[in-house]
Amino acid sequence: MSPGRVAWNDPPGGFHPASAPDYLPLPRLRELQLQRLQGVVARAHERVPLFRRRMEERGLDPGALRALPDLGRLPFTVKSDLRDTYPFGLFASPMEEIVRLHASSGTTGKPIVVAYTKADLEVWTEVMVRTFAACGLHRGDIVQNAYGYGLFTGGLGAHYGAEALGATVIPTSGGNTERQLMVLQDFGATALCCTPSYFLHLVERARELQVDLSRLRVGVFGAEPWSEAMRQRIQEESGIRAYDIYGLSEIIGPGVGAECAAQDGLHLFEDHFYPEIIDPVTGEVLPEGAEGELVLTTLSKQAMPMIRYRTRDVTALVSEPCRCGRTLRRIRRIGRRSDDMFIIRGVNVFPSQVETALLEVKGTLPHYQIVLTRAKGLDEMEVKVEVTPELFSDKIRELEGLHRRLEAAIDHVLGIRAKVTLVEPRSLARSEGKAKRVTDLRSV
Amino acid sequence: MLRQLSLFLENRPGQLRAPCEALARAGVDILTMSLADTDQFGLLRLVVRDAERGRRALEEAGMVVNVADVVPIEVDDRPGGLAAVLAALDEGQIGVEYMYPFAAGPRAGKAAIVFRFDDPPRALAAVQARGLRVLDESELVAKKL
């Protein structure tokens, strides 16, 4: 931190005062974390029956939490706990203190509901200010917010953060591509918030409609996993800087972590969210730097504290100092989820790796399905790939070449031989929510 | 130039029926066709009387249709007729990706299509049991002479 720098919109190097905690000396940060952790665990124990019961079952009481690693003794919280206590069972504040409710889309049944007190909203706004500041935004920027407004946390979370930063916010919400483009051009937006895949769609339409996006400087992209390759493509095609942000409703919404100018991992706002990395199978806490499932504990949430929430997102913690000077630890970009993982012939495989391979071959992702079988004690993996109009040729040797390249790419990316089967367009089952990519027919 | 429609088919029994029925429903006449196969998949190529209507009929039946231009070349119906055309293409350094003939049958109003089956005796029995006429070689040869 450079003391004496008061105006956050000074030339590069300055930062918004809200970003000060990003630069806390580590001993001070750890002390703050422990203090807040003790408070939040005590609150959860006192006010949320589920947390109290689970701690008592293990003979734990909040007073036993003397150091940060002691957190590892507390039980995990998982998504089904939110569903099982639907709608308000995990609330730690009376309704008269709760000023906002959000909910997930509930693609697999009842949605999950999350709550905020006034203080929680202030924290949320603060971490979103820090998110935008890390992405290089400041007062004077015109931020078009195309995250959906409503029950989804993305829209309002980004909205209040950008406003509190002092930027000009255009709350377009999601959808209506041509209108988005008209506003982007006519209002001269310098920054855009949306999912990375939607941005690519916007760029494509902008080219067709000859919309001028030259004033756009920064993209704040989240709400879905994306790869470094996709960032390169976005930056090359549009000339903007594309930043990855991270968050989930169960913890607060967007604002859990964000990339800085270094674009080398996402800083976690550790003074509000405490991270652990665990082995997704054993639940054991892994040493720093190891890849595993991210577990988050909220350190300041009042209305809905979360203790050791299993995010199912697979990443690794990076504690080496960042070029930007922030002392906050970073997580590696998230491209996989632990609940998607399957093991074949002893190797851990994620559908995202299969996607990477398919993308490598043709640049567009066809509809696909992974089928696992076991023949004579040996695991077999078949990848069914729909022949889309882009992949289709009337020449046998081109289709055979495509088939060979798909098999080679999977072998190359996964280190596993898979049988690729080209199947007719639209022949693979579609699901209304998230695509079900893996069918495991192996009998255990 | 002729417009050719092609379809990707999975290599399993029954896959040819749907496109042919879709064309039948739309009243689109098939002039000739070729089925290329690999152990992985099949490729059905069709020349129909109204390519645009054929394409729409197939697409409405949920199929993905590839449209390509093919070139019908007249060949003298005598020994060496095809060889002469191929010699001309070769001299022009034009490679042939694939080819298939238009076929005429031995009787007026009938066309002859040559099928290849996995199990010819079983197929023959099944076809004859349904009252379909299987041409023998001599008939086709006689017609040609």
Detailed description of the structure:
Chain B: Residues 4-78 form the ACT domain. Chain B: It comes from Anaeromyxobacter diazotrophicus. Chain B: This is Amino acid-binding protein. Chain A: InterPro entries: Adenylate-forming_Reductase, AMP-bd_C_sf, AMP-dep_Lig_C, AMP-dep_synth/lig_dom, ANL_N_sf, PA_CoA_ligase. Chain A: Pathway: Aromatic compound metabolism; phenylacetate degradation. The complex is a heterodimer of chains A (444) and B (145). With 444 residues, chain A is α/β, with parallel strands linked by helices. Chain A is 30% helix and 23% strand. In chain A, the strands form 4 sheets. In chain A, strands 3, 4, 5, 6, 7, 8, 9, 10, 11, 12, 13 and 14 form a 12-stranded mixed sheet that branches. Chain A has a 4-stranded mixed sheet with strand order 19-18-17-20. A two-stranded antiparallel ribbon of chain A has the order 1-2. Chain A starts with 25 loop residues before the first helix and ends with a strand. Chain B is of the alpha+beta class. Chain B has 2 domains: 2-68, VC0802-like (2-Layer Sandwich); 69-142, Alpha-Beta Plaits (2-Layer Sandwich). Chain B has helices spanning 17-25, 51-60, 81-91, 120-129, 137-144; strands spanning 2-10, 30-37, 41-48, 65-70. A 4-stranded antiparallel sheet of chain B has the order 2-3-1-4, with helices on one face. Chain B is globular, with a radius of gyration of 17 Å. In chain B, 14% of the residues are buried. The mean pLDDT of chain B is 86. The interface between A and B is medium-sized, with 18 and 19 residues.
